[in-house]
Q: What sequence folds into this?
């Protein structure tokens, strides 16, 4: 297992290099002068030249990239020109809030998606299967930001039972219960689409496994239906579902960008929106790179869990 993990970690290196190049080039290709966007009304030729020199934007692109990567390898993500603080400190502070939101959403979509898929497969073509399929299709088809606005309208504006925005109450609160109340709506909004994807794949995998000979043999031996489903069929089907859960981890991280904007959640998504609007290049590059690297890491974890469930995949 250790050798497999090391091999997978080494395979991440070219992926991370490619990600860094893509992130750097995307920011470099955005039209306009970042120095003028940063300075605004104070964008005199002298100030623009000074900011470009301080940010290293007066150098050729290959040299800019090498300087940036060299600093990254030393743990230096640069300094946010707008916030006047180290990029890494800001990114880690915001990323912790995003992890709370994305982690809660991933747990919710995994639990509900797996349960819905199992029940739908066991009750194939029944009214439960049709109901689950109906809601799954609605969930997959519904834009997350629109669902978020709808939930705010119903639960925060009309019924006033849940807060509409923020991570904690402005006055008072600040405890775990306050965090949970603010977390419900954005976490549910972010989990809906991923729940539908996991439910559909779980249903398909379960149906395939339930038709296998060893499942029929288990039933012929007199095992209860519950043991056949959860001890034999579900374990085998889970091998195919685990990688999709890893992909959905990346989806909830990416989806947090606009969900955090809708709910004013103080995470890395809201930070990136503000940083892009102000052309805070180093902050955008650092934030996007951390999110992308986390996505790669989550997929690595999913691959390791999948190999534990099915050792044949290590070869």
A:
């Amino acid at each position: 297992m250790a050798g497999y993990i090391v091999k997978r970690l080494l395979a991440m290196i070219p992926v991370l290099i490619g990600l860094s190049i893509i992130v750097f080039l995307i920011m470099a290709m955005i039209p306009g002068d970042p120095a003028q966007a940063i300075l605004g009304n104070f964008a005199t030729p002298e100030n623009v030249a000074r900011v470009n020199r301080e940010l290293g934007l007066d150098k050729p692109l290959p040299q800019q990239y090498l300087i940036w990567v060299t600093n990254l390898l030393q743990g230096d993500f640069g300094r946010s020109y707008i916030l006047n603080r180290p990029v890494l400190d800001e990114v880690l502070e915001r990323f912790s809030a995003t992890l709370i939101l994305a982690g809660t959403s991933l747990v919710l979509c995994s639990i509900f998606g797996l349960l819905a898929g199992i029940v739908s497969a066991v009750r194939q073509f029944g009214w439960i299967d049709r109901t689950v399929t109906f809601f799954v299709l609605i969930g997959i088809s519904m834009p997350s930001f629109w669902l978020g606005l709808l939930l705010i309208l119903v639960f925060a504006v009309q019924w006033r039972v849940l807060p509409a925005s923020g991570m904690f109450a402005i006055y008072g609160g600040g405890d775990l219960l306050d965090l949970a109340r603010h977390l419900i709506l954005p976490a549910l909004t972010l989990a809906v689409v991923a729940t539908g994807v996991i439910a559909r794949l779980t249903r398909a995998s379960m149906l395939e496994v339930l038709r296998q000979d060893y499942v029929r043999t288990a039933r012929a031996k007199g095992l209860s239906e519950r043991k056949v489903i959860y001890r034999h069929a579900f374990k085998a089907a889970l091998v195919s579902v685990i990688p999709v859960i890893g992909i959905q981890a990346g989806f909830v991280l990416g989806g947090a960008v606009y969900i955090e904007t809708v709910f004013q959640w103080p995470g890395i998504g809201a930070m990136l929106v503000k940083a892009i609007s102000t052309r805070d290049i180093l902050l955008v590059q650092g934030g996007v790179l951390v999110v992308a690297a986390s996505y790669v890491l989550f997929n690595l974890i999913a691959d390791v869990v999948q190999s534990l469930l099915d050792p044949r995949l290590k070869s």
The chain has a mean pLDDT of 87. The radius of gyration is 24 Å. The beta strands are 79-80, 85-86. The first strand starts at residue 79 and ends at 80.
